[in-house]
Fold:
Amino acid sequence: MNLLGAHYSFLNRLSKKVSVSVLLVRLGIVAFLIYSEIFVWF
Structure:
């Protein structure tokens, strides 16, 4: 039972890390698109 709880908390932390990295990737893509738009316009 304790092992299951530890496994669940590990999965919870892993999913949080994955969601944070996905958010960072999305922000990077948005920043790259904005930067490329500015670079094209000027």
Notes: The chain has a mean pLDDT of 88.
